[in-house]
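Let us practice reading a record.
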Amino acid sequence: MAYTEKRGENSYRLVVELGFDANGKRIKRQKTIRVEEKLSPKKLKEFLETELVKFKLQVESGEYLKPEKTKFEDFALKEWKPKFAERKYSPRTRSIYLVQLNTHILPVFGHRYLDQIKTIHIVDFINQLEDKGLKDSSILYIYKVLKSIISKAAEWEFIAKNPLNGVKQPKIQRKKMKFLDEEQAQQVIAALNNEPDVWRLYFLGCMLGGFRRGELLALEWKHVDFDNATFTIEQSIPEFDGDKPIITTPKTEGSERVVVMPAWYMQELEVYQKEWRKRKMKLRDKWQDSSFVFCNETGGPYYYTTPTATWRKFLRKNEFEHIRLHDLRHTAATLLIEAGVDLKTVQERLGHTKYQTTADFYAHVTKRVSREAVAKLDKFDPRKRTL
């Protein structure tokens, strides 16, 4: 027997009866659902009937987990993973989250019933992670996975109260930003002349345009305007799903932009394009159906970690001090600020949605430039004037 009971203004209880237990007590499985949107009586009836049928099938098949008797591991793997994580997270994020779940979270919370997990248990768990010496970034990832699971448990009414409400998100120390000064940049540019054109122009693009790794990986010829010497940044390849690139919009909403590039760089890119076309014609059917500017031997985009690995090899080969590939983006901003370019222009070039983000990132550079500018006024010190 299955039926629906009205509980509140927008909530309904689905009930499935499974007969009687050994003591003659009726066995029931219940689930409360909310109907937020306004439906006509007919539509509401149809919706509730559909949900009741689905719930009845879950109960009879054994898939339904009774909230007050659900262990953390069962909820995480049977509810959260298929119904949320696999639908909402990218393959890379999902893979990282599941590693953290299996390695750190399930050994501690897996055996506990959801309603038995208290705030103090989570506080102790985070403290233990810190005591083990895990990196700030790892602890933050673990916290985010735990938060995602427990928040869904509360949202889906498996627990009455979210025990994470009293736990602050772990802080992560921002990595110290590095960048090349003008002399170092010149040395790197000279060394890049010995690299294949595809990588020479890719790394120069990062340094001159302040682009993120994935933005240049996703750059297509349709985004290159030789007449106006610009790149239009409207997509990115942050990761792959197996051997297929995941093409998204740039990292933050609103960071699509048009970036003006140096004329000499565009001239070199035009020469590279001619060679690119020759290679495409030579391969014919073997060429992938794409037009990525910085591509592999068959025209497809490089795997998202390839630029970083290639950059590291380049630094080692030329005995340069190690800086991250992403630091070429910081180099672009720093060189512009030191050349007197205002922060608003730098913000637009980098694709920061907020001016304050740019100001915070490069505050140390602007302060140094300001001090150097003020120092030039020392010549007006009357005490230093010679008669």
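A brief commentary: The first helix runs from residue 41 to 61.
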